[in-house]
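To illustrate the input format used throughout this study, we show a single complete record. The first block contains the structure-token representation of the backbone; no residue identities are included at this stage. The design step must infer an amino acid for every position from geometry alone.
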């Protein structure tokens, strides 16, 4: 599948791109909300919930991924949201409260991960991609 990966944190972007490509997907990467364009040919968007508005603007990440999900819904492109919930506390609860009734899956960091070094749960993202692929057959 052609995946649009939207992630502000470089180490998560690099790890996600490697994991998705290793699973056989083509990956385009964007690093902030300001640059998001859902173009023809994108099969699925994988977006961090908490994104920078503009990369390197010095402002803390906000839940722009929810706006990305709404755009995807308008364009009829499936979305998988990711986050490292350990450092977002009440924002995490709000994001899940918005995503759940919309049926936007959120893949959170495994609970056992260190809050400073924990990787994203890319195996679960890949599993979600398989579910999307199966639903299209």
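Output of the design step:
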């Amino acid at each position: 599948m052609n995946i649009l990966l939207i992630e502000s944190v470089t180490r998560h972007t690099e790890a996600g791109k490697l994991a998705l490509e290793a699973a056989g997907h083509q990956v385009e990467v964007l690093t902030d909300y300001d640059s998001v364009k859902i173009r023809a040919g994108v099969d699925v968007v994988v977006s961090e919930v908490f994104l920078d508005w503009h990369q390197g603007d010095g402002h803390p990440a906000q839940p722009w991924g929810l706006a990305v999900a709404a755009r995807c819904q308008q364009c009829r492109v499936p979305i998988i949201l990711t986050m490292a919930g350990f450092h977002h506390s009440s924002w995490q609860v709000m994001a899940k409260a918005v995503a759940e009734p919309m049926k936007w899956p959120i893949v959170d960091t495994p609970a056992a991960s260190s809050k400073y070094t924990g990787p994203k749960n890319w195996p679960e993202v890949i599993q979600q991609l398989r579910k999307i692929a199966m639903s299209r057959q």
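Structural context for interpreting the output: Residues 2-135 form a domain with the Rossmann fold fold (CATH 3.40.50.2300). The radius of gyration is 14 Å.
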